[in-house]
Amino acid sequence: QVQLVESGGGLVQAGGSMRLSCVVSGRTFSSYSMGWFRQAPGKEREFVAYILWNGGGTYYAESVKGRFTISRDNAKNTVYLQMNSLKPEDTAVYYCAAKTLGGTRTYSDSATYNYWGQGTQVTVSS
Fold it and tell me: For a Cys-Cys bond, which of 60, 83, 85, 99 suits 33, CB 3.0-4.6 Å?
């Protein structure tokens, strides 16, 4: 059973930075491609960032490109989301997700991910 645990959320002022972490259980983390999604109250879940299983490819939503960076440390079974220049519209619950079966072309489709964390709240004040 694969389990994901996010941490690092909280309250930050606009223009600030925050780093989210997601620790993944299991022995096959290095074979998982990983994604970050977010959902604000009353809105649909949206794609944020993706990293290939070997770290060789990343993709970002246009709204966060240049401000957010996804990375991974396979030795620690952890994926990170570094968020800089935060804006109030970044406020949401952030979820990490694991894609175990491959499929880079569907990196932004939440339905193609197999496991999800519980989410961590990020609030950006103006």
Answer: 99
Residues 46-57 pLDDT 10s: 999 999 988 889
| Token pair recorded at residue 40 | 């604000």
Looking at residue 5, its amino acid is V
Half-sphere exposure (CA, 13 Å, Cβ side) for 98? 25
- Beta bridge partner(s), residue 100: none
CA 27/CA 11 separation, integer angstroms = 33
Per-residue tokens: 59: 């993709």
Rounded Cα distance, 50 and 72, in Å: 10
Q: Is the pLDDT of residue 30 over 90?
A: no
What are the φ and ψ backbone dihedral angles of 45, each rounded to 5 degrees? -65, 135
The residue among 73, 70, 45 whose CA lies nearest residue 60 is 70
Q: Rounded to an integer, what distance in angstroms lies between the CA atom of residue 55 and that of residue 50?
A: 10
DSSP of 47-105, one letter per residue? EEEEE-TTS--EEE-TTTTTTEEEEEEGGGTEEEEEE-S--GGG-EEEEEEEE-S--GG
